[in-house]
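Attaching the record inline, Q. Sequence:
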Amino acid sequence: MVSMAHKKTTVSSLFSAGPAGHGNAAVFRQAGFTLLELLLTLAVIAIISGFAAFGIRDILPGMRANGAMYRVQESLREARMLAMSEGRDVRVEFSTADNRIEALIMADVDLDELDDASWADIRIMVERGQDPSTDLGNGSKFISWSGSESLAPDSARFAYAPDPADDIASSGGRYVFKPNGLLTDINDVFSPINGTVFIGPLAGQSDPTNRFVRAVTILGATGRITGWQLRNGEWRRVR
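Structure, as predicted:
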């Protein structure tokens, strides 16, 4: 009997109304969240998610523009290197219908034949199947440009900036990389030319400050290919 009473007293003491009992109840309450705390947490999550959504919406167009610029740079570099490594002319054609660069290689070394029959599919002519052809991807297209933007001070050592007078893409022109690395017009394959490819967002995409305009320049005499971004009325080199 004494033992049972002792047990009852011990168990009931855990739930007593004394100071120790109140202390234990406080510990249990602190282990959870109140309704107010949950509401505040949900509100903070909603605010952060909203900022993230707006940030992604602003970042994605710029990422697409840079992606298109890098594709053009890589395509032109591959075409030039292919001409030099194979010792044959490589033609690049800008298709404005599907915003694509098509590359073909000279079927033979007779430079006097420049009609369409003289060019062959690179994947057939070159064993390793290196094909510089590419498209701009979703969200970008070849555009014409009529601006008079200057070269940014931090890029002043680049003598050749994007120039609307040297636009080689928006008209769907055909150009040739020579085995010595020069860029020429298909109608005059003996004289190097400078070229600029202007890239912009598709119609319907808001770009009031031209933040998503990009350019790729080719210095014909050296084959130097550079990417550019328009910022505050100046062309700045993209590193």
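Residues 64 and 138 are 8 Å apart (CA to CA). Confidence is low (pLDDT under 50) at residues 1-17.

More tomorrow.
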